[in-house]
Inverse folding.
């Protein structure tokens, strides 16, 4: 059911923003819609998701209406600052959004459109399990205004999927891609590398299979062992091996080389696209620190430098909204030093990089050493930007430490 919520200050029952918070109506506004339902819990997953036996009174068939209540509440909050804006991006994440009927997703999207408007050319993404995607579902989502499908492929190798507790049929990835294409949707495929028992040859097969499906976008994430997950317990008991850092580095380099050869360019450490237009604008908004409102249990939001997060359980979320109260559990407002650190942490991950001029003096002094170590691009640094090399992407945390000492 996901990791614990962060500590923070209490959030007001009406969701009001602090009186001195400056909210600019000129900054892009994104919408994240969390759908916290899954058929089974994957052993590695630390997201705020719930299977049918964990709902404890919450109802999937009432969920769309609950989210619509939070959308209405958010409009009231933003109107007090004159900062209601059309959504530049909308992202349905989870969980498994496509466990809900497509009509429910369409109603939630219509609620965003009716309340805020959706900007011309907006990116509207739905995450999908391959087994839940049919031509009829894809057509209904496209008709509702969805523009992009993010398909959880994870691997093309059955024993790797089994190690991750993924239950979808690998053959259905191709079916889902075909359904999305027929409906006119852009396609992204998500992969995970470093699962117990996965070899470099297994990983190469998965990347090559993904490339053969010709998606517009590929995400490839290293498996991270989160505390409290089934996989963490298995590793602690010695039942399966922990991920091998060196093997994961080899897997990353293999993916980057295969994707580059197929015409994909990296634009964030774990993301590649066929063109700048196919980059995930919603995720770029997170890395660039713009404004977004996250709807649903456990969802996080960021407006004007203020962050808050909702109560985790769907039943608690529904109860708060039934009382016309904000579902926010807590919030925080990082100080200037924390914001600078986060800016370096996030913006060094993207291909646009970070202006050298924004670094503190010690960080600027370390740029030369990072160039010498092959971690950042020398030519880009001369032009005044910190951009990671492939080796630097593998050692991004070390680069950030050097830039923020």
């Amino acid at each position: 059911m996901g990791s614990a919520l962060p500590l923070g200050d209490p959030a007001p029952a009406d969701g009001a923003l602090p009186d001195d918070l400056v909210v600019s109506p000129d900054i892009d506004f994104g919408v994240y819609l969390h759908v916290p339902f899954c058929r089974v819990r994957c052993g590695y997953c630390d997201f705020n998701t719930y299977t049918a036996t964990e709902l404890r009174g919450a109802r999937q068939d009432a969920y769309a209406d609950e989210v619509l209540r939070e959308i209405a509440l958010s409009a009231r909050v933003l109107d007090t600052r004159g900062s209601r804006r059309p959504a530049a991006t909308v992202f349905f994440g989870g969980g498994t959004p496509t466990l809900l009927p497509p009509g429910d997703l369409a109603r939630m999207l219509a609620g965003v459109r009716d309340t805020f408007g959706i900007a011309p050319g907006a990116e509207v993404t739905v995450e999908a399990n391959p087994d839940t995607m049919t031509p009829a579902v894809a057509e209904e989502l496209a008709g509702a205004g969805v523009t992009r499908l993010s398909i959880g492929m994870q691997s093309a190798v059955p024993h790797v999927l089994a190690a991750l507790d993924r239950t979808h049929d690998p053959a259905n990835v191709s079916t889902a891609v075909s359904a999305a294409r027929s409906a006119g949707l852009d396609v992204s495929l998500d992969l995970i590398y470093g699962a117990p028992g996965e070899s470099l040859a297994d990983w190469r097969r998965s990347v090559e299979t993904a490339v053969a499906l010709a998606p517009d976008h590929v995400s490839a994430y290293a498996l991270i062992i989160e505390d409290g997950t089934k996989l963490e317990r298995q590793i602690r008991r010695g039942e399966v091996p922990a991920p091998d850092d060196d093997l994961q580095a080899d897997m990353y380099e293999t993916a980057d080389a295969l994707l580059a050869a197929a015409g994909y360019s990296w634009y964030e450490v774990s993301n590649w696209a066929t063109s700048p237009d196919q980059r995930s604008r919603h995720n770029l908004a997170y890395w660039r620190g713009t404004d977004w409102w996250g709807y649903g249990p456990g969802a996080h939001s960021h407006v004007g430098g203020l962050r808050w997060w909702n109560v985790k359980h769907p039943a608690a979320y529904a109860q708060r909204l039934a009382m016309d109260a904000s579902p926010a559990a807590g919030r925080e407002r990082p100080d200037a030093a924390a914001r600078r650190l986060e800016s370096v942490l996030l913006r060094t991950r993207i291909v646009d990089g970070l202006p050298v001029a924004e670094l503190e003096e010690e960080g600027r002094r370390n740029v030369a050493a990072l160039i010498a170590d092959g971690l950042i691009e020398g030519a880009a640094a001369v032009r005044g930007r910190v951009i990671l090399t492939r080796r630097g992407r593998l050692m991004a945390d070390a680069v950030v430490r050097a830039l923020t000492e």
